[in-house]
Design brief:
Elements lengths: L17 E6 L2 E6 L4 H7 L25 E2 L18 E3 L3 H16 L15 H8 L26 E3 L9 H10 L4 E4 L6 E4 L15 H5 L5 E3 H6 L4 E6 L8 E7 L2 E7 L12 H5 L14 E2 L8 E2 L2 H19 L4 E5 L5 H15 L4 E3 L6 H10 L17 E5 L3 H4 L1 H12 L3 E5 L8 E2 L2 E2 L2 E3 L6 H14 L5 H7 L2 H12 L5 H8 L3 H13 L3 E5 L1 H4 L4 H14 L9 E4 L6 H6 L6 E2 L3 E2 L3 H11 L11 H10 L4 E5 L3 H4 L3 H9 L3 E6 L11 E4 L8 E4 L4 E5 L11 H12 L8 H11 L8 H7 L2 E2 L43 E6 L24 E4 L1 H6 L7 E5 L4 E8 L7 E5 L7 H4 L16 E7 L5 H13 L9
Parallel strand pairs: 1-4, 14-15, 14-25, 16-17, 16-21, 17-20, 21-22, 25-26, 26-27, 31-35, 32-34
Antiparallel strand pairs: 1-2, 3-4, 5-8, 6-7, 9-10, 10-11, 12-13, 12-27, 18-19, 23-24, 28-29, 29-30, 31-36, 33-34, 33-36
Helix pairs in contact: 8-25, 9-25, 9-26, 10-19, 13-16, 13-17, 13-19, 16-17, 22-24
Bound molecules: iron/sulfur cluster (3 copies) and FE2/S2 (inorganic) cluster (FES).
Length: about 950
């Protein structure tokens, strides 16, 4: 693939009216509003330019793109001049050439002439323009005042700012504003003294900068440049792939020298990200070749024995014989497996196939159990499909955005930038969150309503909103009559109309003034296109599924489903969590969310796989662990998931793992779960394999191999070897064959193949005969289940209650620079922003406990305690504390409890009653865990981690 894509100079204009003009004698037709520069580029004519690039609005500052237009005076800038019907433009005349050379002379007279040793040599637009305008001399000399000795800023770990090379084109400033929406950069000073500055002349690291890299990408010179390019030089080829961090699913070009990645460049035609990225996808990929990668299979008899490196064959045969032994001794159901939401669709499909066909049971589950399983349940019940309703582009038509229990600027940053752009354009914003997340007030964005409810009261809040909509006559009666089940609607309307669901009555639970709730409900119902975006703050509750249905109810009641700009949109966590659910990772469902007890579906799979399949749903992750502690579950194959760090009530998780006789961990690092493993199978990173990921908008995108697997095999090959060793034959030559099988067995994937995805760039399921190019918006002509189903959503307060012993509520979440359990991001420079997990506590609660900023505090719940540092923060409300779980040994999940969603067992991470006290030492759990870690991570033949 080409390293450089065409830069059209100014953005594409989406207009129905077209204009035709003539440029250098050639005719071209473009949408009205297109710049002359872009029209020329459409013809393949490159007008010299420096301050223009097609990701940014035109600015007209460098004066290099001048053109002559018949009948007009002067030489207008082509980047700021709209094309008009009948226009006759000349881009190359002697007069223009002289003017352009003059401009370039001025730039070059204040620019170091070290092109041969410059890191941007070969990728510098200033250099290209000097060539394009035929610059041969610089008459002004280099002796006058200049910026050549300006000091570099190397504070950001990923890029360097060298102001001596800056041409003050403002592309970086505009990228930070228009693309990223952070407004971290300014041009300080005027005229000759103008200089790009992060914040108040801070270094980049200490400024507002979130290290998204948009400015680096936009910079036409080496002023802002990636350190990996400084260290390694320019790439020579690139491979298109998909980010392996979050559910936004950004497309990237992995730019390489041989098989060494030197830069990840967000792909301009990527349909989820349109050329943007965040700090993780663009910069935090060094983990892929980190020294901690385990590249040899290992086995051991007991978890306290040192690991023995063995051949792949020995490791696979050992694992297979252990699973067979366990099944012979304890029964077919004594083993199971966990699929990975970090792995590809094809790999996930194979793991669940292995469990169902080779183990002969349905004991398969996935990490969605602990994040978005209520989304699957709630949306399937109400709409008929377990997935979000919109594509990301739909945000461009949103008038009212409702963000519930999500923190997009940290967890889904590229989509957050698009949200912020839409909000700057005038969309209104309602935030429902216990914390004052960044979106509540950030540069040029302010929420109209922040419903700062107490954790655990979401359902009371959604019922209060529904009550307002129904009792104030704001229901879209025509939509409901046409699209929804009438009896269910009537029942729901009667239910939410009851006085106990009014904003006034629910205020005692939520803590949010009734008037504010009513105002937000009115805005949602009457403000035009209203879209709900939500996250784990909705699902990770004992009423997670109820809340998902509650949101679906109000979307149907107001007619906000089934077109652009509306919808109920889960912001899914991991890169392929949507895919892992689609692929049949749940114990009760085959791919495409079809129940294992459905004879027709089961017989379809039995026919294809040549085995008899179990009609009974298998064990969920918590049930597997409970059964292990009880003694009936003895062996597990875990691909790419670290349940000993990510799942709630870690003590229970580790007790379960310790009770098993064969734990097989398949991962790129010796993770925390591997402390309890008997077989370690080295995994492959996303750069080392082919396959597909499915993002939060149901978009299936290609993952293409950029380097060979460090351990020799991609994960799908390892699962296949294990299956063959277990006696169930799998014989795929390439992941495309697995996708072909998925398409044969899954109606919503019927039209999906690697060829189709490559042809379309990406495709959103359902993709079948009815929708051969996929489905960006669901439920357009009717709900997938037929009529939309309103569900009763009675509020039941969680059993997790605060009291004298545990008076505070702990809620957990993520931050931008780290990802989930941190296995990848901790092995990058991202630690510069978040070196440890801290406890955010309101000043009032801190003062009551004598806690100051940075103090070590003990965080205790009824199930466990840990110690970490305090950060005093007014983002919290009094009575609520917050932490992340990115670092090993912090143990936030030692404190979280076993309470879970009534329908799906999704843990109630977001509500734990706790007490916080000053402390001067690690907790007992932390000390004993460190000892256990020390004892279980030794490798016999090589140095331990
Ligand atoms: S890296 Fe991103 S946030 Fe930081 S200054 Fe550049 S554009 Fe702005
Ligand atoms: S840093 Fe780069 S993009 Fe920013 S003004 Fe200077 S040359 Fe232009
Ligand atoms: S927003 Fe998500 S998918 Fe995109 S680059 Fe960042 S982590 Fe990767
Ligand atoms: S590119 Fe048009 S003025 Fe700079």
């Amino acid at each position: 693939m080409l390293i450089k894509e065409t830069d059209f100079g100014t953005p594409f204009v989406n207009a129905e009216a077209m204009v035709t003009l003539e440029i250098d004698g050639q005719s071209v037709t473009v949408p009205a509003g297109t710049s002359v520069m872009r029209a020329a580029a459409e013809l393949g004519t490159k007008v010299p330019k420096l301050c223009a690039t097609d990701s940014l609005n035109s600015f007209g500052s460098c004066r290099l793109c001048l053109v002559e237009i018949e009948g007009r005076k002067g030489t207008p800038a082509s980047c700021t001049t709209p094309a008009e019907n009948g226009m006759k433009v000349k881009t190359q005349t002697q007069r223009l050439a002289d003017l352009r050379r003059n401009v370039m002379e001025l730039y070059i007279s204040d620019h170091p002439l070290d092109c041969l040793t410059c890191a941007a040599n070969g990728d510098c637009e200033l250099q290209d323009m000097a060539g394009a305008v035929g610059l041969r001399e610089v008459r002004y000399g280099y002796d006058g005042a200049n910026h050549l000795n300006s000091a570099k800023d190397t504070s950001n770990p990923y890029f360097t700012f060298d102001p001596s090379k800056c041409i003050v084109c403002s592309r970086c400033v505009r990228a930070c504003e228009e693309v990223q929406g952070t407004f971290a950069l300014t041009i300080d000073g005027r005229g000759f003294a103008s200089v790009v500055s992060p914040g108040q002349q801070d270094g980049f690291l200490d400024s507002e900068c979130v290290s998204c890299g948009a400015c680096v990408q936009a910079c036409p010179t080496a002023t802002l440049i990636e350190n990996t390019i400084i260290d390694n030089g320019q790439p020579e080829h690139s491979v298109l792939t998909t980010c392996a961090y979050c559910g936004v699913g950004c497309s990237f070009k992995a730019e390489l020298k041989g098989d060494q990645v030197v830069r990840m460049m967000p792909y301009k035609d990527g349909k989820a990200n349109h050329g943007h990225s965040c700090v993780k996808g663009r910069f935090a990929w060094g983990y892929a070749t980190h020294k901690d990668r385990i590249t040899k299979p290992m086995i051991r008899a007991r978890i306290t024995d040192p690991w023995q490196e063995v051949s792949w064959e020995d490791a696979i045969n050992h694992a297979a014989s252990e699973f067979k032994r366990i099944q012979a001794k304890y029964g077919r159901g004594a083993v199971g497996g966990i699929t990975s939401s970090r792995c590809t669709n094809e790999e996930t499909f194979l793991v669940q196939k292995l469990i169902r066909a080779a183990f002969g049971n349905n004991n398969v589950d996935t990490c969605a159990r602990v994040c978005h399983s209520p989304t699957g349940y709630g949306l399937k019940t109400t709409f008929g499909t377990s997935a979000g309703t919109q594509d990301f582009d739909s945000v461009e038509d949103v008038d009212v955005m409702v963000v519930i229990g999500a923190n997009p600027t940290d967890a889904h940053p590229v989509f957050a930038s698009r949200m912020k752009r839409r909000l700057r354009e005038g969309a209104r914003l309602i935030v429902v969150d216990p914390r004052r997340i960044e979106l509540v007030k950030t540069a040029h964005v302010a929420a109209d309503h922040h419903l700062q409810l107490l954790p655990g009261t979401n359902v009371a809040m959604i019922n209060a909103i529904a009550h307002t909509i129904v009792t104030e006559g704001l229901v879209n009666e025509a939509y409901v009559a046409e699209r929804c089940e009438p009896e269910d609607f009537k029942r729901w309307r009667d239910f939410v109309s009851q006085p106990e669901n009014s904003p006034e009555a629910t205020e005692k639970y939520t803590g949010v003034p009734a008037a504010e709730v009513r105002a937000a409900a009115r805005l949602y119902a009457t403000g035009g296109n209203a879209a709900i975006y939500y996250g784990l703050g909705v699902t990770e509750h004992s009423q997670g599924s109820t809340m998902v249905m509650g949101m679906a109810n109000i979307a149907m009641a107001t007619g906000n489903i089934g077109r652009r700009g509306v919808g109920v949109n889960p912001l899914r966590g991991q890169n392929n969590v949507q895919g892992s659910c689609d692929m049949g990772s749940f114990p009760h469902e085959f791919s495409g969310y079809r129940h294992v007890s459905d004879d027709t579906v089961r017989h379809l799979f039995e026919g294809a796989w040549g085995v008899t399949l179990d009609a009974e749903p298998g064990l969920r992750i918590p049930n597997m662990l409970d059964s292990a502690v009880e003694g009936s579950f003895k062996g597990i194959y875990i691909q790419g998931e670290d349940i000993a760090q990510s799942d709630p009530n870690i003590k229970h998780v580790t007790d379960g793992l310790k009770a098993m006789e064969c734990v097989v961990v398949h991962d790129i690092f010796l993770n925390e779960t591997a402390n309890f493993a008997h077989v370690f199978l080295p995994g492959a990173s996303f750069l080392e394999k082919d396959g597909t990921f499915t993002n939060a908008e149901r978009r299936i995108s290609m993952v293409n191999k950029a380097m060979p697997p460090l351990a020799g095999y991609a994960d799908w090959e390892v699962t296949m070897m294990l299956s063959n060793a277990l006696g169930y034959r799998m014989d795929y030559k390439h992941p495309s064959e697995i996708m072909d099988e998925i398409a044969r067995l899954t109606p919503t994937f019927k039209g999906v193949s690697f060829d189709r995805i490559r042809e379309l760039g990406s495709v959103q399921w359902p993709c079948n005969d009815a929708a051969p190019e996929g489905t960006p918006i669901m439920h357009e002509k009717g709900f997938v289940r037929g009529k939309g189903k309103f569900m009763i959503t009675a509020f039941v307060p969680t059993d997790e209650r605060t009291g004298p012993r545990f008076p505070l509520i702990l809620t957990t979440g993520r931050i931008l620079s780290q990802y989930n359990v941190g296995a990848q991001t901790r092995r990058t420079e991202n630690g510069a922003w978040h070196p440890e997990d801290v406890l955010e506590i309101h000043p009032h609660d801190a003062e009551n406990r004598g806690i100051r900023e940075g103090d070590l505090v003990s965080l205790a719940s009824r199930v466990g305690d840990t110690t970490l540092r305090a950060r005093i923060s007014e983002r919290m409300q009094p009575g609520v504390v917050y932490t992340t779980f990115h670092h090993v040994g912090t143990g936030a999940n030692v404190v979280t409890t076993e309470y879970s969603d009534w329908a799906t067992n999704c843990p109630e991470y977001k509500v734990t009653a706790v007490e916080v006290r000053l402390s001067n030492q690690k907790s007992e759990w932390q000390r004993s865990y460190e000892e256990l870690r020390e004892a279980t991570r030794k490798i016999a033949t090589t140095a331990a981690e």
